[in-house]
Write a structure and sequence with these properties.
Layout: E1 2-8, H1 15-27, E2 30-38, H2 40-50, H3 54-66, H4 69-73, H5 79-83, H6 94-103, E3 116-122, E4 128-131, H7 136-143, E5 153-155, E6 158-162, H8 171-176, E7 181-185, H9 200-223, E8 228-231, H10 248-264
Parallel strand pairs: 1-2, 1-7, 2-3, 7-8
Antiparallel strand pairs: 3-4, 3-6, 5-6
Helix pairs in contact: 1-3, 1-10, 2-7, 3-10
């Protein structure tokens, strides 16, 4: 069994890609001794850190197979209030909150088998806020609260939003926490669809995934010579939007296959920046 710090990036509905990666990594005996997650990666990380086992990896995958766009984004007639400027957000986090209340088998950070750290951002300054204690569902909701799409989450007197604003793939955070062997699970980004989503929420999520991809390249170049850093290649070409939650099963199956190939080819023994992660289009 091999232990690494697992760094789980953000990516909206492409968090299903991460679920496929986890299925293969856990099946291969790769285990985390630290979990750092942001946005969609915070959701996956919250389950993983509690019990990093094959059954938990399958549970995460099943959640992504079942979740719908309506549940994930909470869009309704009330979303029009946000569009008209009558409230500060468009979508509603009640669906995700309900999912966490139903499915997450614990509430406090102290209950996890391995240390869990969730990255959010201060709404006013954009500064990283690392959540490592207290209520896990609240931390996940804060880390996934895309500005303008979801309402900020108040924790310890601070209004917190999506952690991607501060760190799309929190490699630096894991290193500050003492990690020296990191395996990064990026969700990737839509690279083979010529049209940017027309819906306001879709545009915001598309921008967030591109921001995260660019930050990942910068962090890799900064830390590759300081720590043992492995990046699991995401899917490419990818046509699925980070706004569309209807393709979970397809993304999971494809990510399982690509991750299996990467492992079989000795991916854990090699560094380097996967070409799939360089911002590009087809």
């Amino acid at each position: 069994m091999t232990n690494w710090a697992f760094v789980l990036a953000g990516g909206g509905s492409l968090g299903a890609v991460q679920a496929g990666m986890l299925l293969e990594l856990i099946a291969a005996g790769v285990r985390p001794d630290l979990v750092v997650g942001v946005s969609a990666g915070a959701l996956n990380g919250a389950f993983l850190a509690y019990d990093p086992s094959p059954s938990t990896a399958e549970r995460i995958a099943e959640l992504w197979r079942r979740i719908s766009t309506r549940e994930a984004l909470g869009l309704s007639w009330q979303s029009l209030l946000g569009v008209l400027g009558l409230r500060g957000h468009i979508a509603d986090a009640r669906g995700l909150k309900g999912l966490l209340e139903r499915e997450l088998p614990y509430r406090e950070f102290s209950a996890t088998q391995v240390p869990l750290h969730i990255v959010a951002a201060d709404e006013a300054s954009g500064a990283e806020v690392l959540l490592s204690s207290g209520n896990v569902p609240e931390a996940v909701l804060a880390s996934t609260a895309i500005p303008g799409v979801f309402a900020p989450v108040m924790i310890a007197g601070r209004r917190l939003v999506d952690g991607v604003v501060a760190s799309g793939t929190p490699i630096a955070t894991a290193v500050r926490l003492g990690a020296t062997r990191l395996i990064v699970l990026p969700c990737g980004f839509t690279c083979a669809n010529k049209a940017v989503p027309r819906h306001a929420v879709g545009r915001a999520m598309h921008a967030i995934t591109l921001l995260g991809a660019r930050q990942l390249r910068q962090d890799f170049e900064h830390y590759a010579d300081r720590v043992s850093l492995r990046l699991v290649p995401p899917l490419c070409p990818l046509t699925h939007s980070s706004y569309d939650y209807s393709q979970g099963a397809t993304l999971i199956a494809a990510a399982r296959e690509s991750t299996r190939r990467w492992l079989d080819a000795g991916g854990l023994d090699r560094g380097g920046f996967p070409h799939e992660l360089a911002v590009h289009s087809h």
